[in-house]
């Protein structure tokens, strides 16, 4: 079933093939959880939101239209679940703690540990990055995460966020500018 496209898997799942939907979950869960984790600042919350999103996607699979990509459709559902979760639990807007694990800032290989001074510098840089990201407005941060972390194209982001492509480009440009400016200020 690995060779089937998302659209083919969705069609099978619509006909009651639970294993086809399981394959969709398997394909997209890591990416979705990672994006949600960057947005919520909590792995546990990201996992919970992703679970709700997949359950909702399963229940509403008949509303999926194949002209949109499955991940884009799923991400919209997850965004709505995150908003509901945020209202209910008052989540912090962002934390980049997950980057330390997912991007290799914490090494699992203890034989090749960096010098303690290097580790302190990295932790300081990460703290500054987290602070700077948390100060960027949500709309800019979300567009930047979708582009840089999820690797979506401008067109995909525009469809996903339901905004014009020029607005996507503008938000990403502004997010990069604000991030650089905020990091520069923090280093002073």
Describe the fold and architecture.
By secondary structure, the protein is mostly helical. The protein folds into two domains: 1-104, RNA polymerase sigma factor, region 2, helix turn helix motif (Rna Polymerase Sigma Factor, Chain: A, Orthogonal Bundle); 115-188, Winged helix-like DNA-binding domain superfamily/Winged helix DNA-binding domain (Arc Repressor Mutant, subunit A). It is built from nine helices and no strands. It has helices at 6-14, 18-40, 43-59, 70-89, 97-102, 116-135, 138-148, 154-161, 165-187. Residues 91-100 and 105-110 have low confidence and may be disordered.
What is the secondary structure topology, with strand pairs?
Layout: H1 6-14, H2 18-40, H3 43-59, H4 70-89, H5 97-102, H6 116-135, H7 138-148, H8 154-161, H9 165-187
Helix pairs in contact: 1-2, 2-3, 2-4, 3-4, 4-8, 6-9, 7-9, 8-9
The 3D shape can be described as: globular
| Average predicted local confidence, pLDDT | 80
Number of helices: 9
Largest sheet: none
Question: What structural class results from the helix and strand content?
Answer: mainly alpha
CATH topology of the largest domain: Rna Polymerase Sigma Factor, Chain: A
Helix share, percent: over 70%
User: Can you tell me the number of structural domains?
Assistant: 2
Name of the CATH homologous superfamily of the largest domain: RNA polymerase sigma factor, region 2, helix turn helix motif
């Amino acid at each position: 079933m690995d060779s089937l496209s998302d659209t083919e898997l969705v069609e099978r799942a619509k006909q009651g093939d639970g294993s086809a939907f399981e394959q969709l979950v398997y394909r997209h869960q890591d990416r979705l959880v990672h994006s949600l984790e960057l947005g919520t600042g909590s792995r546990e919350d990201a996992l919970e939101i992703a679970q709700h999103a997949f359950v909702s996607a399963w229940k509403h699979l008949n509303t999926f239209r194949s002209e949109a990509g499955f991940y884009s459709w799923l991400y919209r559902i997850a965004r709505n679940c995150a908003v509901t979760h945020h209202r209910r639990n008052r989540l912090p807007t962002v934390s980049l703690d997950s980057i330390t694990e997912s991007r290799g800032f914490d090494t699992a290989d203890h034989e090749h540990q960096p010098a303690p001074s290097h580790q302190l510098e990295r932790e300081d840089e990460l703290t500054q990055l987290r602070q700077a990201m948390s100060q960027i407005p949500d709309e800019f941060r979300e567009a930047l995460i979708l582009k840089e972390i999820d690797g979506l194209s401008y067109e995909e982001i525009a469809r996903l966020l339901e905004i014009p492509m020029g607005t996507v480009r503008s938000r990403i440009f502004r997010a990069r500018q604000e991030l650089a400016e905020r990091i520069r200020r923090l280093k002073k």
